[in-house]
Design a protein that fits this description.
A hairpin with a 3-residue loop joins strand 8 and strand 9. The relative contact order is 0.15. By secondary structure, the chain is α/β, with parallel strands linked by helices.
């Protein structure tokens, strides 16, 4: 790769150097990655004939990983656990596959050794201790003391909010998917912003937003509380971005400035993602929608003769390699639920732009090429998801079909359905849920065990396993068999509806929604005193512990919310998507 000269010193000079050759747009004035992509990407309607084979370095690194780390995991489930260092963005020194001299295309590990898992005790100590012991290790007694005596965890905070009814429902497992073990939600940070703008500019925008609301003496008490929280959360995000700079420094990367080459664009984007997975124990840590964005930088360097197609493929091979060795400290029960050790580093691709152009690029082909046996072979991570449409370029559809037949490692979702609701810069969170990248978060309520609810309908709300009266007496009368030993269908159905209604009433669900964010809940919209009192809501989700927070993801995600759209997926589940709005100053938030 071509070395980058760092003679430029001012932000303007750094921007000019990094953005040379790109089409101008609103993306230069504000944080607007979508505008950058739409004005600069090049759709590709050919076939896969341009693709290059894997480099010897890629083959060596992948074999080294498999021989020394993945093979060990296949024998003993967990390669290693760091029991002394609570995870954080800059908690670990630099780590490499093999050596820094060999692993130098795309660098960065969650800890200092491949596949070594970090503990994240901010979420709760009990599960961390259980997972450490199941991995054949013993917890550090000093760390245990800190997180059981001095530091309030997410688990502590949630149990402090639970009502008696919720605890009874939890104990009897009539309600599942509760947020005490882990936060119930999804978030996709826009990690591309690190590459396009550099962290210094992101910090500058965050400082602008933090100061966008001046203090006023006529604030009401709820407004004062909101204002304090508003500033504190921005401050936490600024701190996280500064830690991201420290992380880059560990690997000799100057993340303060925007990426100047294709290699840096891939590396900078990955470092934003790495900061999030270092600090958040996410059940689903989606990577976003990156192919068209990265392709802009790759095409520029290819045309300038700075890289070859072999170099371009090596970049994508190596970032996929890093995504395949993301690891979290899990219990055996967790792994059994999912029949494996998933983390859903979902990489969304293809689809169409709102202007009708396909968003298939050469990098879309390069991504699929990583799945071939000549490169890294099939793998569940990253969870490659194609936004499908019958009108996608023929060559791409055929290549997708070939790779799907050969590997069964691609999933497909309807681009038309996603784009009609979430626009052309959406991505998949976890496995199937779309959201606008860096603009939204999703929250989840608990689930009602509908089979157990049917037993409650028959038993009058009594749990036959524990003997506890879960649904208050008088709401449901026990059903006695008919003379022939059967149950009256109409009576059972009526009681079943009452059981479901009882389990989804306010005394169960309102507190549950209140404590189930994946991280501290986003600030409610700022409503100035000049607005009518009736439209100025003074209620919001109570703040939970920061245990499962990733301030980096929050810093790379729009945190202003307007209305919440509640989408009920059944009687017993609901997803709440937080939609964006402009900041109070009239400027788009970061």
């Amino acid at each position: 790769m071509t070395a980058v000269e760092n003679a430029a010193v001012s932000q303007e000079e750094l921007d000019a150097k990094a953005w040379a050759g790109f089409t101008e747009g609103n993306w230069q004035k504000d944080i607007d990655v979508r505008d950058f992509i739409q004005k600069n990407y090049t759709p590709y309607e050919g076939d896969e004939s341009f693709l290059a084979p894997a480099t010897e370095k890629t083959k060596h690194l992948w074999k080294y990983l498999d021989d020394n780390y993945l093979a060990v995991e296949r024998k003993q489930r967990v390669y290693d656990v760091d029991t002394h260092t609570p995870a954080g963005i800059d908690a670990f020194p630099a780590g490499y596959i093999d050596s820094p001299e060999v692993d130098n295309v795309i660098v960065g590990l969650q800890t200092d050794v491949p596949c070594k898992r970090a503990m994240m005790p901010n979420g709760g100590w009990r599960m961390v201790e259980q997972a450490i012991k199941e991995a054949g290790k013993e917890p550090d007694p000093e760390i245990k003391k800190i997180f059981t005596k001095y530091r309030k965890t997410h688990n502590d905070g949630v149990f402090g909010v639970y009502t008696k009814n919720i605890k009874i429902a939890r104990h009897n497992k009539i309600l599942t998917g509760l947020p005490d073990a882990y936060g119930r939600g999804r978030i996709i940070g826009d990690y591309r912003r690190v590459a396009l703008y550099g962290v210094n500019k992101l910090i500058a925008f965050k400082k602008r937003d933090k100061d966008s609301i001046p203090y006023r003496n006529d604030f009401t008490e709820p407004e004062i509380e909101h204002w304090i929280r508003f500033r504190e959360e921005h401050d936490e995000q600024i701190k996280a971005l500064k830690q991201l700079i420290n992380l880059g420094n560990e690997y000799g990367l100057d993340l303060t400035r925007p990426a100047q080459t294709a290699q840096e664009a891939v590396q900078w984007t990955y470092m934003g993602y790495l900061a999030s997975i270092k600090s958040q124990d996410g059940a689903a840590m989606s990577f976003g929608r990156n192919s068209a964005f990265l392709d802009v930088f790759i095409e520029r360097d290819l045309k300038a003769g700075k890289i070859t197609e072999t170099d371009a493929q090596e970049l994508i091979d190596n970032i996929v390699m890093k995504l395949r060795i993301v690891r979290f400290l899990r219990t055996k029960d967790y792994d059994n639920i999912f029949s494996g050790d998933p983390y859903w580093a979902t990489w969304s691709d293809a689809g169409f732009g709102d202007d009708g152009r396909p968003m298939v690029t050469k990098t879309s082909f390069r991504l699929l090429n990583t799945l071939t046996l000549e490169h890294l072979g099939p793998g569940p991570e990253p969870n490659i998801t194609i936004f499908w449409d019958p009108k996608l370029p023929e060559g791409y559809k055929r290549f997708c079909a070939k790779i799907s037949i050969d590997t069964s490692a691609i999933q497909y979702e309807s681009d038309k359905e996603i784009r009609s609701h979430w626009g052309d810069d959406a991505a998949i969170a976890c496995c199937v849920s779309p959201m606008r990248v860096g603009k939204q978060m999703q929250f989840f309520a608990a689930r009602v065990n509908s089979a157990k609810a049917l037993l409650y309908a028959i038993n009058g709300g009594r749990d036959e396993m524990t003997g506890m009266q879960v649904i208050d007496k008088g709401i449901i009368d026990p059903i006695t068999p008919e003379a022939d030993g059967t149950l009256d269908y109409a009576k059972v159905k009526d009681n079943y509806e009452k059981a479901l209604e009882s389990c989804t009433t306010r005394k169960y669900t309102v507190p549950l929604v209140a404590v189930c964010p994946v991280c501290p809940s986003p600030p409610t919209p700022w409503l100035p005193s000049s607005m009518p009192r009736s439209t100025r809501s003074t209620t919001r989700m109570p703040r939970t512990s920061k245990a499962t927070s990733t301030s980096t993801s929050r810093a790379l995600t729009t945190i202003w919310s307007s209305a919440t759209a509640l989408r009920a997926t059944s009687r017993s589940t609901a997803t709440m998507t937080i939609a964006p709005m402009t900041s109070p100053s009239g400027l788009s938030p970061l």
